[in-house]
Amino acid sequence: MDSQPQQATGNELAREAIAGAIAAGLTLATAESLTAGLIAATLAEVPGASAALQGGVVSYSSEVKARVLSVDRDLLESKGSVDGEVARQMAVGARECCLSDVAVSATGVAGPDAHDGKPVGTVFLGFAHPGGSGYAEYHFQGDRARIRAAATDAALTLLISTLRSVAAQVDGAM
Predict the structure, then answer these.
(1) Sign of CA dihedral 9, 12, 15, 20
(2) Cis omega before residue 112 (within 30°)?
């Protein structure tokens, strides 16, 4: 018998995120690089997701990050695409271009090789909402598929905590 606590799966996290967004009357968006749309796809698997999910941007290239998501070109040139501030700006850009209340983003290195001087497994997740934005850094182990899945689950967890924070601010303002 395994005594370790069960960790929520992507589908469970997505259901919680969609339910939380709908309950709070908030809309969602994603900006994805290493996950290539996996976060948005996982959210969209939830029946009724269209009540909250506005859209997403898959921005594998730095040019798309700059032109579509308004990530600072100088930042991309100096730091590369695998950077916390890039993740933050991606989330802000997704929120703006998808006309959403809350956005989450993912950029990182799924492998097989290092990228922008960062080792495989390095992931930055960004978030944006009406009250601000930020990012978190993660280091995952495994092959490409495991890193992308772990990044997706972490992004959904970050989205849930961001939704709770925004909902609490809205409730507190009433």
Answers:
(1) negative
(2) yes
Q: What is the pLDDT of residue 73?
A: 98
User: Of 10-14, 20-24, 35-39, 40-44, where does mean pLDDT reach its minimum?
Assistant: 10-14
In the chain, domain spans: 10-168
- For the domain spanning 10-168, the CATH number is 3.90.950.20
Instruction: Give the pLDDT of residue 7.
Output: 59
User: CA 94 to CA 27: how far, in whole Å?
Assistant: 12
Q: What pLDDT does 169 receive?
A: 84
CA angle 158–111–141, rounded 5-degree value: 55
Tokens (6 digits) for 162: 């961001």
Residue pair 125/142 in contact (Cβ under 8 Å)? The answer is no
